[in-house]
Amino acid sequence: MAGLLAGAMVIVSSESVWAARPNDGRVEFGEIPHSQSRGEFVDVNIGKGMIALTAKLIAKQDPEAASVLIGIDSVRLNVVGLDEENALQVRQKAKSLTTSMDQAGWIKIITTHQKGQDVSVHLKTNARNSVQGLTLVSIEDGREAIFLNVVGNIRPEQLTILGDRLQLETLEKAGESVRSHK
Q1: 114-125: pLDDT as tens digits
Q2: Which of 27, 44, 84, 86 sits most deeply, having the most CB atoms within 10 A of its CB?
Q3: How many of the other CB atoms lie within 10 Å of CB of 115?
Q4: Is residue 114 part of a domain?
Q5: Cβ-contact 133, 6 below 8 angstroms
Q6: Distance in angstroms (rounded) separating the CA atoms of residues 141 and 95
Q7: Domains in the chain: how many in total?
Q8: pLDDT at residue 23 tops 60
């Protein structure tokens, strides 16, 4: 069942437009330029109702994952294939997005530039030391760009669990990084 959850979440990515509630961890990615030659595009938006239903379905088999899901309000994922036509525009969109989050007080916890892949992970936290929003932006040259936003009330130690269940190594590292900053 955890595999089903991971699959559902994975099916769930310029100027950034912040949601009507700018303090809640929600980030609107706006229009992401599509690739004409690489047709790959995924846009998934999962709300609280579907997430709560999934948590109930997996509660007996994976109570740890279910406890994480209960605190999540929404998941938005966009994946877009990159080619020569859209790569520069997508990189500009990613830079604009990360700059906007930096200016809005989000905490940049991971930035990597290696072997043609750029990854950044930002967190929006509240005074109670919980994560209200997590945004991951990953660009792999010549392949794809991933934009992920998770909104909810997630304790930092739960990020590692979420990353493990979704098979997102960067998210697991984000959880470890947050724990080490405490």
Answers
A1: 888 899 999 998
A2: 27
A3: 7
A4: yes
A5: no
A6: 15
A7: 1
A8: no
